[in-house]
Amino acid sequence: MGIEAEPLLEDHEQSAGLEDVRLSRRSPRWPWLTSVLTHTLAVVLVIIVINLIPLTRTVLLFTESPQPKLYSLSPAPLTPAIEYIIDTPPWNYWSNHLYFGEPSDDSERAWNRLIHPHGLQVFPDEVKHLDGSRTVVMKNGNSLYMLGVYHNLHCLRRIRQTLQADHYYPNMTAEQRKNDLEHTTHCLEAMRTSMMCHPDLTTNRFYWSHRPWHDLSVRPDVTRECVNWDRLEAFMRKRRYDPGDILKGHGEDLSDDYKDDYKDDYKDEHAYHD
């Protein structure tokens, strides 16, 4: 008679084990839920990455892009003068007639104040990065420069005077008119190249004006980043110069070369006339 093999587990223990196996093999209650959550998470991550790329590029553009050598070397003459502010002009910001309206004493005074501190005295310890040997020198040893923005403002005033020549030049001869036109052309080109060198990146909005001659127009009332003009102007007035203090005979003399290249407008271009 053979020996009866004893079960390894009691009946109730064996039943419980088989139930555990069945449970482990059973599919989840909602098999689609895991897939949906996985795909949703992937989509969210893709959206985050897509939105962060432009932001990262913007941050790098304004924080890590190298500044021109001229302005990064120390001491830079304009460092204490430059401060940026956030400004939002009013809707009628471009409707100011003081500078471009009818000629008046108030307008002339405003223009005189705006453009006359154009000369910048640069101290000897600042000028070594600006090639001071090629500009005019003051009797006190400072070098004299003109900021591009003041040349542009001078040009704007010159263009305004040309547009209102009957008032400013009532007895202009044909030769003077020709010279004035050439000077104005020079000013327009100077302003064009200046605006391309330092473009205004303000994002002005469009609007419908319903004017038959200019239906699609641009509005100025948008938040923008600007140089604090009052601070810059105050600095320029501290560094302004007296023409009588210019040391004659120093700096480059390009009159002969200039006359060869610009024979027609040499007389008018040789000096600024406000």
TrEMBL record:
Annotated InterPro entries: UstYa-like (IPR021765)
GO biological process: mycotoxin biosynthetic process
Keyword Membrane: yes
Keywords linked to the UniProt accession: Membrane, Transmembrane, Transmembrane helix
Keyword Metal-binding on entry: no
Segments passing through the bilayer: 32-53
Family affiliation: Belongs to the ustYa family.
Listed name of the protein: DUF3328 domain protein
Organism: Talaromyces stipitatus (strain ATCC 10500 / CBS 375.48 / QM 6759 / NRRL 1006) (Penicillium stipitatum)
